[in-house]
Each structure stands twice: as structure tokens, then as C-alpha cells.
């Protein structure tokens, strides 16, 4: 019988397994601690568990299913992991240190079905959804390999999280739980291209998790060109969902806007963005575009980025400009693309 992966398994599944084995439930706490705190990679190491239980665990479960195929380090400290999940599928996960913080950028799909014209992940196509256990294992593997604890998690790697809703939801149950990684919801951000019904559902399920929405254009025609799924979910529909989300959560939404020279970065574009976002509890994060192969767009010049920011600020909108990280190892936004079968 094939062994089941213990990493990322829902706590309730571990409790039921212990019960069917006639083991006391307090063993679960010890197991959680060995997995998520100490990152034990063998059952032998779980020294406070009785030998019989360790043997039973070893006969039933594996500790992790992935293989780290490559680790690349940037000169700015960013580290990119290429992680293979059997039977097929590889994703990239990026650790971004900044002062005493460590942000982990997680992938949710092998590739992405949305196909944004400026994103290497989208241009490479879609293979499959990651399972919730695989998403949890991204955190486990990186923390184990690097001997660190990530204090911010961002779902901004490969894939569209809200198109893999159930798995991202379950992964967060483990990541956020005191019986899992214990990562606070307010330290977690999910970035979505904008799937209206899922945004509202997310607000109900995870009101404390930060939401980032990839806007990138103030008009449907332009946005549909950049983000094909806009033909299905128009700006009006997504903005309607954001308003509903805000009514549920009362939490500030980050609006991500990638800037491309003379494509979506004029002052008029900025004015239109300001108009659409007027009176909404949002903050705009401008992302200077990162050049990817197969895309013909050029990143906006620093002057145009600043001018765009000024128009928004003049209209009372909070703006930040995202710093590029890990560019020398293709680990910056939109550059994750390695998909091996
Ligand atoms: N699918 C989700 C999350 C992953 S992408 C989403 O689209 O929101 C994370 C962010 O990187 C998004 O805001 C996305 O638009 C941005 N991005 C994608 N390609 C980029 C590129 N080439 N340069 C800069 N940002 C990019
Ligand atoms: Fe997918 Fe996000 Fe890339 Fe668009 S930007 S293709 S939604 S990962």
C-alpha cells in the first residue's frame, strides 16, 4: 500500500487515524510539533513517541513527497526553490528576506490557466492544481532547508489561488492552525486576478487574510488584452465583488498595478484608476513590470512610475512602489515559469 504524506494533512485526519489505532489523542500535539516546529524528516527522530507508534506511523505515512531540484540564490538574498511533486509537476517557491523579516512567496498551481500576456507563468500554460498538502509542503520544505521560519506568506507565485479555491482554503487551515504552522492570518496575503464570486466567498471564509487584487488597467478593452479572463469577469463585476468583500471584512485591499511603458501607464490611465477606486478602502501597490521572454512589453521608466504614483496620491489614494527582488535569478513577480513534467 502506498504511504500517505503526513505533511499538510488536516489535523482532523490525524486525530481520526490515532483514534482508529487506539492511540490517545494527545499524541497528535506531539506529532504536530515534530512536523511543523522541528521539521522532523524521519519518524525515528520523534523521540517522545513510543516505538510502537513510531513504527505504525512509519508503516502508514511518509514525511513529505517533494524533491528540491534546484536552489538559486540572488545577490540580494532572495532564494528560489524549484520543487518537484510526484507523479508530475514542478513549481517555484521564493524566500525573500528583508531586514528581520522573511517573506515566502507560494505557488498554488503548476502553471496558470489565466494566461496574462506579461506573465511568464501564464505564457507557459497550465498543468494542474497543487493539492492542499503540496501547498503546505512548500512552506515545510523551504523552512526545513533554510533553517528559518517565514513570518509573511504571500500567495503570489505560480498560479491563480482563487481558481484552486478548495486546496488553498484547506492549506490555509493547516498553515494558520495552532495544530499546524501557526501562521497568523494577518501575516498572509492572497493575490488574485479577480474572480468575483470567489472574492466574496474568500471574504466570508478568511476575513483576516489580506487580499490583493491585480487590476493592471482601468478599462475593459485594455484589461482584456492584458488579462484574458477579464472578458469573462469585467472590471465592473470585479469591483462590485471588492465592494462586497469590503462590506464583509472592513479590511483594506491592496490593488496591484503592473506598469508597462505606454501600455497602461499614462497620466490619464492613472486618473481613471483613481476614479474607479475613489472612496474605497484600498491601497495601490505599483509594480514596475519585469521583462519576460515572449512578452513584447517594456517596463515603465522610473519617471513614468513616479508620475503615475503622483496622480493617485494627489487624489488621496495611498500608493507604494514595489521593489524588484531576485531579478538576477528570475525570481521577481511574473518571472516564475519552470514547468517540468
Ligand atoms: N495569479 C495571481 C497571483 C500571482 S501573480 C495574480 O495574478 O494576482 C503575482 C503578481 O505579479 C500579480 O499582481 C501579477 O500581475 C504580477 N506580475 C505578473 N507578471 C509580472 C511581470 N512580468 N512583471 C511584474 N509583475 C508581474
Ligand atoms: Fe496567472 Fe497571475 Fe500570471 Fe496572470 S499574473 S498568468 S493570473 S499567475
- CATH A-level architecture of the largest domain: Alpha-Beta Barrel
- What is the beta-strand fraction? 15-25%
**Series of H and E elements:** EHHHEEEEEEHEHEHEHEHHEHEHE
The CATH homologous superfamily of the largest domain: Aldolase class I
Poorly predicted spans: none
Proportion of residues in helical segments: 25-40%
Oligomer: single chain
The set of bound ligands, ions and cofactors reads:
S-adenosyl-L-homocysteine, iron/sulfur cluster
Structural class: alpha/beta
Mean pLDDT: 95
The counted number of beta strands is 14
What is the CATH class name of the largest domain?
A: Alpha Beta
Q: Give me the number of helical elements.
A: 11
Question: Which descriptor suits the 3D outline?
Answer: elongated
Can you walk me through this structure?
Helix 7 (196-205) runs parallel beside helix 9 (235-249) and helix 10 packs parallel to helix 11 (302-314). With 341 residues, the protein is an alpha/beta fold. The two termini are 25 Å apart. It is 35% helix and 21% strand. The strands form three sheets. A ten-stranded mixed beta sheet has the order 3-4-5-6-9-10-11-12-13-14, with helices on one face. A two-stranded parallel ribbon has the order 1-2. Strands 7-8 form a two-stranded antiparallel sheet. The chain binds S-adenosyl-L-homocysteine (SAH) and iron/sulfur cluster. Iron/sulfur cluster binds at residues 112, 114-116, 119, 121-122, 159-160, 193.
Amino acid at each position: 500500500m502506498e504511504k500517505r504524506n503526513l505533511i499538510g494533512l488536516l489535523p482532523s485526519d490525524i486525530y481520526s487515524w490515532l483514534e482508529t489505532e487506539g492511540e490517545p489523542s494527545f499524541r497528535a500535539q506531539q506529532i504536530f510539533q515534530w512536523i511543523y516546529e522541528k521539521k522532523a524528516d524521519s519518524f525515528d527522530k520523534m523521540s517522545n513517541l513510543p516505538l510502537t507508534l513510531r513504527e505504525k506511523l512509519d508503516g502508514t505515512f511518509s514525511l513529505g513527497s517533494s524533491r528540491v531540484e534546484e536552489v538559486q540564490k540572488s545577490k540580494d538574498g532572495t532564494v528560489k526553490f524549484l520543487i518537484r511533486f510526484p507523479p508530475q509537476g514542478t513549481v517555484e517557491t521564493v524566500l525573500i528576506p528583508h531586514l528581520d523579516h522573511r517573506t515566502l512567496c507560494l505557488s498554488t498551481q503548476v502553471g496558470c490557466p489565466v494566461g496574462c500576456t506579461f506573465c511568464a507563468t501564464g505564457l507557459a500554460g497550465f498543468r494542474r492544481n497543487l493539492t492542499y498538502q503540496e501547498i503546505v509542503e512548500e512552506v515545510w520544505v523551504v523552512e526545513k532547508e533554510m533553517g528559518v521560519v517565514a513570518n509573511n506568506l504571500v500567495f503570489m507565485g505560480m498560479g491563480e489561488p482563487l481558481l484552486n479555491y478548495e486546496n488553498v482554503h484547506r492549506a490555509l487551515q493547516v498553515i494558520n492552525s495552532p495544530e499546524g504552522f501557526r501562521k497568523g492570518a494577518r501575516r498572509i496575503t492572497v493575490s488574485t486576478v479577480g474572480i468575483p464570486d470567489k472574492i466574496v466567498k474568500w471574504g466570508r471564509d478568511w476575513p483576516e487574510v489580506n487580499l490583493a487584487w491585480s487590476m493592471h488597467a482601468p478599462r475593459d478593452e485594455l484589461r482584456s488584452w492584458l488579462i484574458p479572463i477579464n472578458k469573462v469577469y469585467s472590471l465592473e463585476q470585479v469591483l462590485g465583488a471588492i465592494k462586497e468583500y469590503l462590506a464583509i471584512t472592513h479590511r483594506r485591499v491592496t490593488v496591484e498595478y503592473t506598469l508597462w511603458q505606454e501600455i497602461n501607464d499614462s497620466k490619464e490611465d492613472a486618473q481613471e484608476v483613481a476614479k474607479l477606486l475613489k472612496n474605497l478602502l484600498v491601497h495601490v501597490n505599483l509594480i514596475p513590470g519585469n521583462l519576460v521572454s515572449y512578452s513584447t512589453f517594456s517596463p515603465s521608466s522610473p519617471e513614468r512610475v513616479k508620475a503615475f504614483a503622483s496622480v493617485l496620491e494627489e487624489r488621496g489614494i495611498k500608493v507604494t512602489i514595489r521593489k524588484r527582488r531576485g531579478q538576477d535569478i528570475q525570481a521577481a513577480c511574473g518571472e516564475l515559469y519552470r514547468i517540468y513534467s
